[in-house]
Amino acid sequence: MPADTPPFPLSTETKRTGSPALPATPMETINTMVHYYRGELGRMAGWRDRIDRTSNWAITVVAALLSVSLSTPTSHHGVLLFAMLLVSLLLMIEARRYRFFDVYRARVRQLERFYFAEILNPRAALDLDWAAPIAKSLRKPEFLISYRDAACRRLRRNYCWLYLILLLAWALKISSSMMQRPATAGKDMTLAFEHVVANAALGPVPGGVVIALVLLFYVAILYFSLKVDMSDSELAHGSVHV
């Protein structure tokens, strides 16, 4: 075999000599379906585990940086702004993983809804085309949702609450005299508005600009959390979903 010849040609013109035969009996078909279902279930569970790991990282980041920022008055409020950036990065990573997970979940749910459910409790004649979406996905795997929709779904499910916690902690940090340096701390728990704006400054960036940017960022979070369309997700087929 020439050095530049791939060991497994992908051309559809390849001869089928030596290829595994298709199932010839109902028993062989059932065995094939069972093993295929186990394989898809394993891949779905693997990607689900990756999603959970990213969520755990985000929770750990929020807890750690909250501890750093609120434990001492000398810590800068920029730590919480940095936490918002880190959580956003993890959200982007999780959205990418969710797109892969959604492909395998759709295959598993197609098998469960149209094949195994009918075996357990037949309600009508089995649709002859129920496996067509699975076959199409196997021949040409494609993502079922866009990157933005995936990010919006994860934002609505988990990350909006992490952002809310960070916002409340940041507001407390810049508005409470007990959270400021001892030199500027007073007897009152709250500061005047001009002091809050001054405390929100980030290096050369004025506090008013920082507050405006944070508010715009959270308006975008609220918008995308409410805009996400869940009609084509697993919620359309029941209340148990991932």
TrEMBL record:
* Protein's UniProt name: Membrane protein
Question: What's in the keyword line of the UniProt record?
Answer: Membrane, Transmembrane, Transmembrane helix
List the transmembrane segments.
Answer: 78-95, 158-176, 196-224
Report the Pfam families cross-referenced here. Answer: DUF2270
What ranges does the record give for the region Disordered, renumbered to this chain?
1-22
